[in-house]
Amino acid sequence: MSDAEGTEGRGRILVTGGAGFIGSHTIVDLVENGFEPVIVDDFSNSDRGVVEGLAAICGRPVSCYEIDCGDEDALRRVFESAGPIDGVIHFAASKAVGESQQKPLLYYRNNLGGLMSLLQVMGEFGTRDLVFSSSCTVYGQPESLPVTEETPRAEPASVYGATKRICEDILTDVVASGAPHRVTLLRYFNPIGAHPSALIGELPLGDPQNLVPIILQSAAGIRGPIQIFGDDWATPDGTCIRDYIHVLDLAAAHVRSLDWMAEQDETPLVEVFNVGTGRGTSVQEALDAFERASGRSIAREVGPRRPGDIEQIFASCDKVERVLGWKAVRTVEEAMRDAWRWQERLGSR
Ligand code: WQD
């Protein structure tokens, strides 16, 4: 990473969606590693209080611009005023699978438009390095597991998944056209947990859709028993299997990606990485891990399968370990402990 004049340390990194769940935890890792992050967020799916939480954790304010990435002029003004941008981590996107089926236009406009606007402005300002937030959703239900980066992408099962696949294609095509970008596509599995300080964590606005925020609210008495979406899957305990990764581990993978790109030569590149733990955990096992971590018992009921759910997926992490030298180091139980600590603090707010 070239250290542009006026930036201390290892470079100024624009983080779109930097007030979101994964974005905010990545801001902390960037600061801890000597980078200067600049948050861009429209706060449509994040809370402004996150910026204060980040200042408390980082011991200094973090620069933040409230704009929509799809607004090219606003983004241009950020690049002009923030100072030279040495790299970008692009999180900003709509990400609720169910909602994407009801609001396809919003998802295509926000997710594709935001990326295209960002690429346009990065090109104007000569910013080359980009880490893109992709998803294991692009694999659908893989035929064999663990899933590798060579596993063919499936027909998207949701509009959300389609936007992730198309964004990957946009990036690949833009670089193939001669744009001088170095791009890493990080395919996340299931991010969970929170910062151990409990000053930042997952803050679902409205009714949560994902398992762990629902577990937390059930354990906090905010909602009733957990509905297990089917126990008749072809898995050892009949419940779906996922690769749950601590958000702190996931954040570290982004920062390692920036360093890895800076270590390469100037040749444009697009490199895909699965970012998971390599271990599958069933819904029942996730619930058991939460009970061990929190000391709370969770009421469970078995209900019907959720439309669109796949049976099981977990990552092969061979490539990310071999190429980036990164691997997840935290367990599901540690993530549940941190998540519960965050929920307890939320509950007391
Ligand atoms: C996990 C498991 C459910 C709630 C989604 C996105 C994916 C990624 C991660 C962004 C499933 C089961 C859940 C409940 C349940 N996001 N479950 N009862 O669907 O694996 O992935 O989030 O990249 O793209 O699709 O996550 O947390 O919704 O579900 O039994 O009340 O928990 O069936 O097996 P999912 P999830």
Short note summarizing the structure:
The chain is α/β, with parallel strands linked by helices. The protein has helices spanning 21-32, 49-58, 72-82, 97-102, 104-125, 159-176, 211-219, 247-263, 283-294, 318-324, 332-347, and strands at residues 12-16, 36-41, 63-66, 87-90, 129-135, 182-188, 190-192, 226-229, 241-242, 244-246, 269-275, 281-282, 300-303. Strands 3-2-1-4-5-6-11 form a seven-stranded parallel β-sheet, sandwiched between helices.
Structure commentary:
There is one protein chain. The protein is of the alpha/beta class and 349 residues long. The chain is 40% helix and 17% strand. It contains eleven helices and 13 strands. It has helices at residues 21-32, 49-58, 72-82, 97-102, 104-125, 159-176, 211-219, 247-263, 283-294, 318-324, 332-347; strands spanning 12-16, 36-41, 63-66, 87-90, 129-135, 182-188, 190-192, 226-229, 241-242, 244-246, 269-275, 281-282, 300-303. The strands form four sheets. Strands 3-2-1-4-5-6-11 form a seven-stranded parallel β-sheet, sandwiched between helices. Strand 1 (12-16), helix 1 (21-32) and strand 2 (36-41) form a beta-alpha-beta unit. Helix 3 (72-82) packs parallel to helix 5 and helix 7 (211-219) packs across helix 11 (332-347). The longest helix has 22 residues, at 104-125. The chain is globular and about 55 Å long. Bound molecules: UDP-4-deoxy-4-formamido-beta-L-arabinopyranose.
